[in-house]
């Protein structure tokens, strides 16, 4: 991520190292604050000033580490997807016979816990409203996640199939957690997984 | 819709009947302009002034017919769902054995044509970003659309099943038309329908 500095404006110079909040952990605090800012305000209304305030640092330090808002968003999203990728390896390493159940449990599971749901809500809200955020989301989803799943499949049109499976899971997350349609919003998650896993399995390996 | 006037502010009085654009068709022009405004700017940024400008009428007339922004949004969405409902009857009247293919073709079809896609994009963008818009969307989806489909089904948990089917189709629309994930975004729509219809059928009638 060291090349993220390339986009940083230089006209105000390097931020003073005596700024409150600089030092070990500042970068992580900025990313955490960025995810909270994007989740609360969406991409368009999120501000570097708000992110800096949330992290307890000078706005110049945010610029210094990440550059413009687009790059902060990319970095914040990338962290989420990096941890998702680790789990994804678990998903694909367990054999294709049960990949539908594992993928469904994993994706719907990260939407259940508020701590992982909030960054995802930020990504979805931002990507729906803003083309820059959509492009960041698109590249990460296709390159990092679904292309890897598709690479494991031994069927025709594996990428299209993996995206139809993703569409099922993204649609459930949207209706359950964003639009909050009942009875889906209040349904027991194990019941939902039991009903959806066979469909995801079918997309990925059958027909 | 005559009670929509209840929310209209009175302090400026009834708009003068000599206002440019008042008269037959003004109400429909306002709704068309409202859908365009919500589509372009989303719920939060859409303004009554912008809607009035698009319809060629005084902003007071927009207030007069529909009241505050929330009610304009509800009316604009309701028109879309009223026509959707007509088609929905066609979907459910053709027998349960092929309901998956007909529902898939209908829902994905309205997303293919720009003239019907734009209002849907407006609804999705608005509902994702704003709780008021989400509530309008939620009530219309559950009460008007999916509850009717569910009423035709002879399986356990028909409403939950119909929402999982809706989630599959909404997710595809989102990834294909909003996030524009490839290869789904460029895939032949008939190929997509052929791959998805059996899954929707399974949600609605099998297992």
From TrEMBL, chains A, B:
Transmembrane domains' residue ranges: none
Organism for this UniProt entry: Streptomyces netropsis (Streptoverticillium netropsis)
Taxonomic path: Bacteria, Bacillati, Actinomycetota, Actinomycetes, Kitasatosporales
PROSITE patterns in the record: HTH_TETR_2
Protein name: AcrR family transcriptional regulator
Biased composition (Basic and acidic residues): 16-26
SUPFAM superfamilies per record: Homeodomain-like (SSF46689), Tetracyclin repressor-like, C-terminal domain (SSF48498)
Keywords: DNA-binding
Residue span of region Disordered: 1-26
UniProt GO MF annotations: DNA-binding transcription factor activity; transcription cis-regulatory region binding
């Amino acid at each position: 991520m060291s090349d993220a500095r390339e986009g940083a404006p230089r006209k105000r110079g390097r931020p003073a190292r005596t700024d409150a909040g600089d030092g070990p952990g500042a970068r992580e605090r900025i990313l955490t604050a960025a995810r909270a800012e994007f989740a609360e305000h969406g991409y368009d209304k999120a501000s570097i000033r708000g992110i800096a305030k949330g992290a307890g640092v000078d706005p110049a330090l945010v610029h210094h580490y990440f550059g413009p808002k687009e790059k902060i968003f990319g970095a914040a999203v990338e962290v989420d997807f990096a941890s998702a990728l680790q789990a994804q390896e678990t998903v694909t390493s367990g054999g294709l016979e049960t990949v539908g159940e594992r993928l469904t449990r994993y994706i719907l599971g990260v939407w259940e816990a508020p701590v992982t749901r909030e960054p995802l809500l930020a990504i979805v809200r931002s990507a729906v409203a803003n083309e820059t955020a959509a492009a960041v989301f698109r590249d990460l989803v296709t390159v990092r996640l679904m292309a890897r799943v598709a690479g494991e499949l031994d069927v025709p049109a594996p990428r299209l199939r993996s995206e139809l499976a993703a569409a099922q899971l993204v649609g459930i997350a949207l209706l359950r957690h964003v639009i909050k349609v009942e009875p889906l919003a209040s349904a027991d998650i194990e019941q939902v997984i039991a009903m959806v896993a066979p469909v995801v399995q079918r997309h990925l390996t059958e027909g």
